[in-house]
Amino acid sequence: MILGKVVDTVVSTRKVDSLVGYKIMIVNCLDREQKETGEHVVAIDHIGAGIGETVIVCEGDNARFACDRKEIPTDAVIVGIVD
User: 77: domain CATH number?
Assistant: First the structure.
């Protein structure tokens, strides 16, 4: 899991059917002091995060299970918003 800040959305004119209905966001990774590292992750937004929010991103093969749909072709999913 990584901590990050949502910086933008990805607009897609076409995508696979299993991604229809999901927003795709660009997340800037944060370090332990919550400073931006310059690395970015493209993640599916499963919880309704907005631009500027600090989020928790689940990465890897298990990210698909966060959406309760194993057929989703993703490697990163936003699973939490940090207060």
Answer: 2.40.50.220
CA atoms of 33 and 22, how far apart (whole Å): 30
The answer to whether 67 and 73 are in contact (CB under 8 A) is no
Name residue, tokens 């309704």: 48
Structural domain including 51 reads: 2-81
Are the C-beta atoms of 46 and 69 separated by less than 8 Å? no
Residue-wise pLDDT tens digits, 4-48: 999 999 998 888 888 888 899 999 999 999 999 999 999 999 899
Question: What pLDDT sits at residue 64?
Answer: 74
Question: Alpha-carbon distance 17 to 14, whole Å?
Answer: 9
Let me know: does 1 contact 59? Beta carbons within 8 Å. yes
